[in-house]
Queue: 4 jobs
Job 1
Amino acid sequence: MSDILLSAAATAACLPYPALADELAASLTDSAVTVPPRLVQPLPGGASLFVMPANDATVAMTKLITFTPANAGTGRPTIQGDVVVFDIATGTRRLVLDGPTVTAHRTAAVSLLAAQRLAPNTRGPLLVLGAGVQGRAHVEAFVAGLGVREVWICSRSPASAEALAAHVRTLGAQARVVDNAAAALPDCPLVVTATPASGVVLDARPREDAFIAAVGAFTPSMVELGPAMCRDLMACGTVVVDTRDAEHEAGDLLQAGVDITALPSLAEIVRESRPRPAGPVLFKSCGWGGWDLAAARLAMLRVCAEA
């Protein structure tokens, strides 16, 4: 068991962001990838159990995680669980990855892939709303994958913002903590919203060359971006969803009355090699088992290479 059960640190080591973004792109063009709808089981107290299976021709995996919003601010993680990876040919369980680490890395790598394909301006500064696990992962991904050298951080917790700023500096980038995200938009072409999505945190017009990755809201009741901002980006820019599942999960867009069925998905952008759009871009990410499968594939490759 010790050979296949990877700690959070060992899981992270298997999933460097640039390589994971490449694996995500490869999985989107792999016809063998199968991803059934995820099961979301409501739990008492407002928590949820997520069951997310997927497979390709050689690897099968299931992510089992709990999402417990009540843990916020308690020192306990809001997301806990595992990703179990199997070899299809033998049925053997090959790896058990740390679920929260996979979630953080694959979510940030999806945003990185979207930015690589869609962002009009990848130089930064990067504005990050939310200084938790996802905020940290996105900073690491954009520094490693885009070469961002300046990060602005806005968080309702000054201590968390300062801690993330200190981490940014260890990555070789400059960091600044700001109090007003809307006021920072004119200076930041790259924006990530990675908050608990309990209410609108941004409702302002971005730069004409802005790329916004909204990742905090992944249920119909959650929201980070204001309705006016979503509708404005629909009118004057481009809105892309991570997968078709966003049609019933993207709270920001659903609450703004956006026709999500008419929006392109990241898979279509990658498969069709669509040109980089003009004007501001909103990338709405809700999560998908296929992203976890890509992480499992990369982890398998790296573990086998080291064996």
Job 2
Amino acid sequence: MAEDCCRFQLISGDGVLNMELENFTRTTNLSQHGLSYAVVAIMGPQSGRKSTLLNKLFQTNFRMMDAEEGRSQTTQGIWIGKGIGIEPFTIAMNVEGSDSRERGQV
């Protein structure tokens, strides 16, 4: 992964907004881009390879499921990450699986 890539949990698995968003915006220099930025989100079923797709397309570093350990929830809540080498500045959002087994929603 690229050095300047970072990820940040925006909303916890319990639905609580992380009030330290300023750390992400400062680390990624988001404010320097004014209104010239894009946000891309991906939603889908648990273990649908959402994190993998975002990591491949935007060079983010979202945690991915290890198939050898079995299928289980990897992403909880909503995570955001800075896309690398993309113009305009792009924020990728990785959303918890829409049918989370751990939440009894199968």
Job 3
Amino acid sequence: MTTITLGRYLWERVYQIGVRTIFGVPGDFNLQPLDYIYHVDNLRWVGNQNELNAAYAADGYARIKGVPGVLVTTHGVGELSALNGVAGALSE
């Protein structure tokens, strides 16, 4: 029986649904899960300047590629900014 870490499993599943690019802002609380992105071949990380930009990038990616947009942020006030981008994506 083989085992797989939770972080690796998460990104493998994201890759299996067709996502190839993860957008977001790295921070103290998400650095370990982000490391596992590089364990999945052909999955890449695109760092953004702030959470709102990351949300817009994930929205644009989803619209162009026809797959879910994936956004990763860290704990803090940036989450409120990211929610503005997510709400904007859902309003159209």
Job 4
Amino acid sequence: MNGVTPYLTIGGGRANEAVDFYKRAFDAEELGRHPADDGKRLMHAHLSVNGADLMLSDDFPEFHGGGAAPAPAGVKIHLAVEDADQAWSRAVGAGAEVTMPLADQFWGDRYGQLKDPFGHRWSIGAPSREPDQG
């Protein structure tokens, strides 16, 4: 691995469900899944999404002061693809919520934004034409 790798914390003991969702929605490849000692939560998962690493785990409040991990405000994960319509259809079909419809944008990409069932925000984009010369 190189660079920056997103590491998602999934609330509600739903990290195993999140791994399965990302496989359906974004064609993620599962590289590893490690259960916690309690047999219920997921300690760590490693996925590859469109050639990039993504890691995640269940929330473990006992390791950060007893409260739930903060909500994923202000963070969006961008998925650069060759065919935005195909990737979009797959994600929406798997249950992602549309927050900004997929459309041709002034900067030259076909682009839209989604929220997954675990509260994380995603954008999907692919070059579609030359940018506007404004």
